[in-house]
Amino acid sequence: MPTAITHWVCHAINVSKKLSRRACITLPIDVVTGIDKLVGKRRRSAFLTEAVRDEIQRRQQRNALRAAKETWRDEDHPELKDGATAWVNQMRSEAEMRF
Does 2 fall in a domain? Predict the structure, then answer.
């Protein structure tokens, strides 16, 4: 018999029901069928959780890159005027000359 302090594990691995919230979503049949073929019916929640977390991270990174877009100014980095490849090659050749 469960008690108030028992943590039940949700479909997603290591996710307590106390830390989860049910969300009713509608998916096309072909999407559900594809998920079931990949992971099975009992692993849908874990699969969707992982996929959504990956997408959230990807979008957050994209937004951070967009926000940082204006922070780089060419005039602050004259050593790169010929491109990063040329600069790296120059640094490598200088290092080789020292040795």
Answer: no
